[in-house]
């Protein structure tokens, strides 16, 4: 089976170019041209992990060529619209650090400097959290923690002063406001102004526990636990990850080990076992156990979820492989789009697709951890 997954990923990159990828289904459906975006960034991150674990330069060569098509020699980033002030567009920048280490190309460092400078100008809530986007004033989304905080930590490690206080401080704000003490789960969004239509007027919170939002937060925590040096801040991040995995794992589907699109509503009409968020949880568990920041038992839990996804949603056929069960997209607002209101009905109404990178990339990341686990045995 694993050889077939290798072939699947290679097939995807062979069918892709910077101008049109085989995995950015959302962009294809919207008819948008190629751009610097978080979806491709997720896939490029996964491909670099494939190159590391398999020792196969075809993956890293593709990433380098792909990124080179967007980065000018002076570090300018083609198609990046800084004025939109969206944390999503920071995410692809995380591949700049390993590419710089691999090649020494100065343009990668310069591009990272530009993204870091943009983060310093990102608007903040009165509590100190970055707005998710300029069009979402005073809003903190779990998604944004992965999009920006991992990049910010990598910048501090490679080019900065090693000051992770802002990164960890923003995690504390999320834990303080977005964690439900009763269900032990995180809400998707928080409006610090408590004015947007989808937010509770007293708490500022959205209504539901969306799986992929929590998945983004989980993989942010495990990646940060790897990046941060030993000390109290790393221990704090590890504690947040341990707390989250202990609670989330109780919501796993008993048969498959997967998780539901709306996490706390198993079996409810319209709800379904979703691939992208399940892959993220499995990756966080497998990697956390490998790093020693989670108990060893989580490796088995993560492996069960990975196998459950493969058995339920990965289909091998004559034309290749399809990965199904992926929620295409979900969000909150903006004001002009009251359909995106954070309710249960909304989350189950979004399209479910095959082969979108928001599902493929986490599964590939999870797969690299499974490969590491096998190699260690």
Describe the structure.
- With 377 residues, this protein is mainly alpha-helical.
- It has a single domain (2-376), classed as Alpha/alpha barrel (Glycosyltransferase).
- Helix content is 51%, strand content 7%.
- It has 14 helices and 10 strands.
- It has helices at residues 2-14, 25-30, 38-54, 57-68, 96-103, 106-120, 142-158, 165-178, 211-227, 232-248, 275-291, 297-313, 344-347, 357-376, and strands spanning 139-141, 179-180, 185-186, 189-191, 259-260, 273-274, 314-317, 320-323, 326-327, 352-353.
- The protein has a two-stranded antiparallel sheet with strand order 1-4. Strands 2-3 form a two-stranded antiparallel sheet. It has a two-stranded antiparallel sheet with strand order 5-6.
- Helix 3 (38-54) packs antiparallel against helix 4, helix 11 runs parallel beside helix 14 and helix 12 (297-313) crosses helix 14 (357-376).
- The protein is globular.
- It starts with a helix and ends with a helix.
- The model has no long low-confidence stretch (mean pLDDT 96).
* Main sheet record: 2 strands, antiparallel
Number of strands: 10
| Straight-line distance between termini | 18 Å
The gross shape turns out to be globular
CATH topology: Glycosyltransferase
**What strand line-up does the widest sheet have?**
1-4
**Stretches with pLDDT under 50, minimum 5 residues:** none
What's the CATH architecture name? Answer: Alpha/alpha barrel
Percent of residues in beta strands:
5-15%
